[in-house]
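To: structure subgroup
Subject: Chain for Friday's discussion

All,

I'm putting the inputs and outputs inline so they're searchable in the archive.
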Amino acid sequence: MKLIRRMALLAAGVLMTGPSWAVEIIEWDRRPMPIPLPVGSERIVVLDRNVRVGLPSSIADPEILRVQSTGGVLYLLAHENFDTQRVQLQDVESGEILLVDLSAREGASDEDIRIVEAEEPAQSASAERHAASEDAQGTNQGRPLAPTPVALTRHAAQSLYAPMRAVENLPGVRRVPMRLPDSLPTLLPALPVEAKPLAAWMLDGYTVTAVRLTNQDPRSFELDPRYLQGELYSATFMHPSIGPRGSVEDTTTVFVVTQGGGLAESMLTPPEAAGHDEGDDA
């Protein structure tokens, strides 16, 4: 099978130009959110809302857990191991309660966490359409200095994993239907991962499709664009590796760029469910 033709984008080259993307995304869907903390290392949780933290008495001790909340960000530092404890986060403005299951253990990830509303991707799509419409009505800004595939990949990463106010303006970009099934087993057939398409954007004949990868194996793996199968222009992994199944590092995202069509047309083996607009809210 023919491997990816070009790898014009490297993860470091694309993502170094913006903020760090070493962040775990957790969707708040009214169910308690598990957050393991490493002992002796601070973990940052970004909520984009000011919250009051309600701790159970068993960990409401700065000698066990230090908690600081400012500007919509929590700074959590566990000084010793503790089992799962239910914690309430109350939005200062709306009064809404978010539930978090905190635990602390040696070796837990210290990767930053961003908590988003489950419906946020749809809101982002609406904002992107509005921005594209404004650009078409008379903006004088030119095309970005970065090559289109690089700028498009960066825009996709920001749209999914950054607050809306931090998404850079990219004139002419638009959200497009993916027309892909829920799972893409032929994208990375050599690795035991589940590949789920998330969203796609188009600019100047290029399309970038964000695909979430979840490891189904108890082993970890290095990620390499050469593992991808299809007539693809380039690809960028958010992380250089994927952790074992069940760990906090078992999920990452790959941004796949195609030219002259979307990912559905570029797969070597056309998905059986092609034509189904999974996640189409463009």
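Points worth raising on Friday:
The first strand starts at residue 23 and ends at 28.
Confidence is low (pLDDT under 50) at residues 1-21, 120-144, 270-282.

D.
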